[in-house]
Amino acid sequence: MLHATHALHVLLALGILLLTLPLGADAAHGVVHFVPDGDTVVLEGSGTVRLAGIDSPEMGRDGTPDQHFAEAARTRLAELVGGRQIVLASAEQVVRMVQAGSVVTGSNGRGGPSASSDFSLHAISPGKLSGLGEKGLLSDLPRDRYGRFLAVILLPDGRNVNELLVREGAAMAYFVSDGSDAARTVHDRMVTLQRQAMREKLGMWAGLADKITIAGPFIGNRRSMRFFPAACADAGRISPKNRVAFRNVEEAFEAGYSPARHCGVWPLSPGR
């Protein structure tokens, strides 16, 4: 019970603020040069960043069509960060600062106040961001298997871009371990925001059930937090201890699972 209470306090603190670094601390900085899709940015002269804890529909490649909502997701991320100076933090850094009590009063992400207990979006005090060191520490960030930096993106006004995209339905919660326990805590936070977006049918969630043509059931993998159609060959390879069944995609998304890249769960954009 004590462990559950502690975990709840951490999640509530994340709701108040996902990150506040000590004044004068060095942090990774960069200017966004290009936005190739809804969960990736290319920095000017310093590498590619994969937004931690989220996933967006895939853009088409080599003649294949875009997935549903892929272009809208890319456009939204470009609106938020294109050509702008950003601050980058790892999931572990985020949770460590929250556990240390380095939190401030938040806002709803649109400049207005919001209650700290409703899991609305919250922003970092711009004063805190302005005190961060200017020397970039990109090398301190974890990388994914493709060599991209895994990070939370913060805007100069304090908004958390990863959270904002999930809350607006422009991205989904996506668990990727970066070798730290913090990745799971951040994932839980993103799932909470995703459930809000699903209930309000925002962004990609509007009419999604009518666009998905594969019928259930679906099989999830507890270890990877991915789900597959039951008929997919990869579903049969999941070990019994990691298997979890879902009647439909809504159940899988509510539980924080995301669709496997293959087996065709996510719909394609029409006319592309």
From TrEMBL:
Signal peptide, first to last residue: 1-27
Which species is the source of this protein? Desulfovibrio psychrotolerans
InterPro entries, per database record: Ada-like_dom_sf (IPR035451), SNase_OB-fold_sf (IPR035437), Staphylococal_nuclease_OB-fold (IPR016071)
Q: What is this protein called?
A: Nuclease
Source organism superkingdom:
Bacteria
Sorted keywords for this record are: Endonuclease, Hydrolase, Nuclease, Signal
Matching Pfam families = SNase
- Where does the record place the TNase-like domain? 26-207
Note whether Hydrolase occurs among the keywords.
yes
Record GO terms (molecular function): endonuclease activity; hydrolase activity
Gene3D superfamilies, sorted: 2.40.50.90, DNA Methylphosphotriester Repair Domain
